[in-house]
Amino acid sequence: MGDAQSSCACGSGSSLFLSLISIFFIWVIVLPRNPKITITDALLTQFSFTNTTTNSTLYYNLAFNLTIRNPNKRLGISYRRIRVIGNYQKKRFALVTLPNTTVPFYQGHKNTTFLSDIIVQGQQVVKFGKKEISEFNKEIATGIYNIDAVLALRVKLRLGTIKFHNYGPENIHCKLKLPLSTRNSTLNQTSVSSSFNVTNCGHVSVVTGFFLSWFS
Questions:
Q1: Are 105 and 205 part of one and the same domain?
Q2: Which of 19, 29, 41, 102 could form a disulfide with 98 if both were Cys (CB 3.0 to 4.6 A apart)?
Q3: Which residue positions in the chain have pLDDT lower than 70?
Q4: Do 79 and 5 fall within a single domain?
Q5: What is the pLDDT of residue 153?
Q6: Is residue 1 domain-shared with residue 58, that is, in the same domain?
């Protein structure tokens, strides 16, 4: 009985060791790198809050362009689904799934994809406390609103003819500082608003996260 358990444990240990060695060599050969996501232009044409005893609604109209850069030499990335989550003061006010005309799409190595005129528009009941309402009023006074546009990605990696399983969703935060604009809500892919600072989205780990998930 004891010999059988020892043999089983040794077999499991050997399998785990071989798996780790395989992952290590794949990592060294592939040198996986995460995509770089940048919001290149954005327009906020409505951002108002109605706060009464019977109604506490946030009205919003945000449009933005973004680029996704795949820096890998060997890995291709298939974007299976992209959702945009709008957060303000850590409260969700919007959830938009990009349409089938945009996603899914495949991105080859050393390739950049442009996604233009992504619209996040509507209204949502949001419960703000006194502190949050005070902060909102301060931003009204300054004319600059701090909005967290979160990209929830589901991807599938490809190495040559090898297709890996889906990974995600992973939330990627794009911290926007936006003035209210009187411009048309349609954005031009080639131009950048003078009032908008190009924003790099942080904590992107859809590629390295996929490989590291093999250890868990």
A1: yes
A2: 102
A3: 1-13, 16, 19, 22-23, 27, 183-186, 188-194, 212, 214-216
A4: no
A5: 95
A6: no
Find the distance separating the first CA and the last CA of the chain, reported in whole Å: 30
Q: Which domain holds residue 15?
A: 1-30
Distance between CA atoms of 67 and 56, rounded to whole angstroms? 35
- Measured CA to CA, the distance from residue 158 to residue 112 in angstroms comes to 16
Phi-psi sector, 117: left (phi>0), alpha (psi -120 to 50), beta = left
Amino acid in the structure at residue 39: I
Residues 26 and 55 in one domain: no
173 and 75 within one domain: yes
Residue pair 114/70 in contact by the 8 Å Cβ criterion: no
Our count of domains for the chain comes to 2
**Using an 8 Å Cβ cutoff, are 100 and 81 in contact?**
no
Q: pLDDT value at position 190? A: 46
